[in-house]
Specification:
- This protein has two domains: 17-255, Type I PLP-dependent aspartate aminotransferase-like (Major domain) (Aspartate Aminotransferase, domain 2, 3-Layer(aba) Sandwich); 257-357, Aspartate Aminotransferase, domain 1 (Alpha-Beta Complex).
- It has helices spanning 16-24, 44-61, 75-87, 101-110, 225-230, 240-255, 258-278, 304-316, 341-357; strands spanning 5-6, 67-72, 93-98, 115-121, 144-148, 150-151, 156-157, 168-171, 188-192, 203-208, 296-299, 319-320, 331-334.
- The mean pLDDT is 98.
- α1 crosses α6 and α3 crosses α4 (101-110).
- The chain has 360 residues and is of the alpha/beta class.
- α4 links the parallel β3 and β4 (115-121).
- The strands form four sheets. Strands 2-10-9-8-5-3-4 form a seven-stranded mixed sheet.
- 34% of the residues lie in helices and 15% in strands.
- It binds pyridoxal-5'-phosphate (PLP).
- Pyridoxal-5'-phosphate is lined by residues 10, 75-77, 102, 148, 152, 171, 173-174, 192, 195.
């Protein structure tokens, strides 16, 4: 069977070159007679894989030397607790920007650990745009600000980085590696790897060194950034295979010309879809223009029956996982790095055809 164009929000498409290389190395990794899945994480062969993964990621993302790179487990959702446990002192405060479902969950989790407030929220508008910079209200003396840069479910993205002296903690699960970012603007960056980086099971945390060592005494060992950093992400068995896939993804990114090039490719894909959406009136694009995500693009016919038919018929054409999240309805096309331009072309062609054949 042919491979499909998979528009899933996550786990999502991986580059074909990466899957092929992994397949080629499945039975016998570089002549050692076993798969990466089967090797000891303490072996010399694996040591090299994890070191190379970190080195390549530092190169791809231009991560400054005063940041630690941690390869953890538990998904981005575990970081919702790890962040306050590591950064919020017993008497401290933190402010959360609510721009969607995941930042709201992060806020609710953090509230268990101390004085946590909302800096701004666009919930009233069903998160169809991100808070304006002028509307952010940060308190004095906060330990950190939390934000989710790209809102996977609602298809929005912050067009700015907030100005604050407090460290910014950013959930970048669905935009990591999609374009260059200035890591030094952030205190902590975290991301579940299953959207744009690897398979499910790996969580990336990038943390500025001066923020290490502030964890509460009660912090579970496995959630303590300093312990994980001191042990090179090998306090216990790390998600070895996912780290190997992340390494292959970084090699692929470098072969593609790096994140500047990736950004240009992603912009071209997103523009194709948004330009079509803006030039017709069959589908509604619910997100305000200045908050649009380059990675996740929701659109609706506003008729649940037609939306359902759309997703079913698209599936038969090899355009799969287009059903929108239940909080937004309609459809959502996730077009991460691995989605080729041709996939978006095929989607737009199908959208045109469907609109013609299914009058409202
Ligand atoms: C998918 C996602 C999460 C949840 O990730 P898990 O790894 O499943 O816990 C959190 N935040 C964002 C922005 C996401 O896209």
């Amino acid at each position: 069977m042919e491979r499909v164009y998979n528009f899933s929000a996550g786990p999502s498409m991986l580059p074909e070159a990466v899957l092929k290389k992994a397949a080629l190395e499945t039975l016998n990794y570089e002549g050692c007679g076993m798969s990466v899945m089967e090797m000891s994480h303490r072996s010399a062969v694996y040591e090299k894989i994890i070191k190379d993964a970190e080195k390549l990621l530092r190169e791809v993302m231009a991560i400054p030397d005063n940041y630690k790179v941690l390869f953890l487990q538990g998904g981005a959702s575990t970081q919702f607790a790890a962040v306050p446990l590591n950064l919020l002192s017993e008497t401290g405060k933190a402010d959360y920007i609510l721009s969607g479902q995941f930042s709201t969950k992060a806020y609710q989790e953090a509230k268990k650990y101390g004085d946590v407030a909302v800096a701004a929220s666009t919930k009233e508008w069903n998160f169809s745009f991100v808070p304006n910079e002028e509307d952010l209200k940060f308190r004095d003396g906060i330990d950190y600000v939390h934000m989710c840069v790209n809102n996977t479910i609602y298809g929005t993205k912050f067009p700015y980085i907030p100005k604050t002296n407090a460290p910014i903690v950013a959930d970048m699960s669905s935009c990591i590696l999609s374009e260059p970012i200035n890591v030094s603007k952030f205190g902590v960056i975290y991301a579940g790897a299953q959207k744009n980086m690897s398979a499910a099971g790996l969580t990336l945390v990038i943390v500025r060194e001066d923020l290490l060592g502030k964890a509460r005494a009660c912090t579970p060992t496995m959630l303590n950034y300093k312990i994980m950093a001191d042990n090179g992400s090998m306090y216990n068995t790390p998600p070895t295979y996912c780290i190997y896939i992340a390494k292959l993804v970084c090699e692929w990114l470098l072969s593609m010309g790096g994140l500047q090039k990736m950004k240009a490719l992603n912009e071209r894909k997103a523009a194709l879809l948004y330009e079509y959406l803006d030039g017709q009136d069959y589908y509604i694009a619910p997100v305000e223009k200045n908050s649009r995500s380059m990675m996740n693009v929701p659109f609706l016919t506003q008729n649940p029956e037609l939306d359902k038919r759309f997703a079913e018929q698209a599936e038969k054409r090899g355009l799969v996982n287009l059903k929108g999240h239940r909080l937004v309805g309609g459809m959502r096309a996730s077009i991460y790095n691995a989605m080729p331009y041709e996939g978006v072309e095929a989607l737009v062609a199908f959208m045109k055809e469907f609109a013609e054949k299914n009058p409202k």
